Amino acid sequence: MRLILVPTPIGNLEDITLRALRVLKEAEVVACEDTRRTGLLLKHFGISKPMVRLDQHTVANAKRLLEGHELVAYATDAGTPGISDPGAELVALAIKEGWALEVLPGPTALIPALVASGLPTARFAFEGFLPQKRAERRERLEQVAARTVVLYEAPHRLRETLQDLLQLYGPEHPVAIARELSKLHEEIWRGRLGDALEYFKEPRGEFVLVLGPKEQAPAARGQGTQELLEQLKAQGLKGKELVSALIEAGVPRNLAYELAHKPDVPKP
Known about the structure:
The protein has 268 residues and is of the alpha/beta class.
């Protein structure tokens, strides 16, 4: 079987690619999160295809549901499948089963919000939707705060998330908040976290938050260098990436190189 992941517009239907339309027309069946929403998209472009619902509740049955089809297109509600939706599970299954797999490039909210933020883009961490528990959210953010961070958030949780960010980053920290990207009421607000809560009193729409890197107190001044090293290694960083992360956290360049290349000592 051949499975092709098809990104769909996050708002403006003109963002769909010619290649995506061709795949949707050629596919034997279109698997999707919501047959009603994808059905409207197909109808808009004059495409008539059978559809199979594959959301977080049914993706476990994907092998049975897609059996017998040679060419399957998979589209989520909006954006690129595999980012904050069940697409990742479907890809894992496709690889396990030996299906031919293709992923088309296309619309996503992540990159437009990051670029439009005006904040550093050379290195960034994408965290998607944060955990619901406050302690877990804070722990996740503390792990990546040294670089630009991109988050997704729903309107009913935006203010709570902003309050958490305010405690971690402080009121003067720069943030850009994109709302309803590519849609009629698109807005990109840029300012300080201390002003964001005042501005977004009644949040509406889907949000992408972009936070600038948090200034770190120089680790070499005292304690915490070894603890920082272990945390970064636990995140899978090594070599040049580990050196860069240490330097960003305030470790002097020479010491960062020394620590990054020092062999691990086996624990007793």
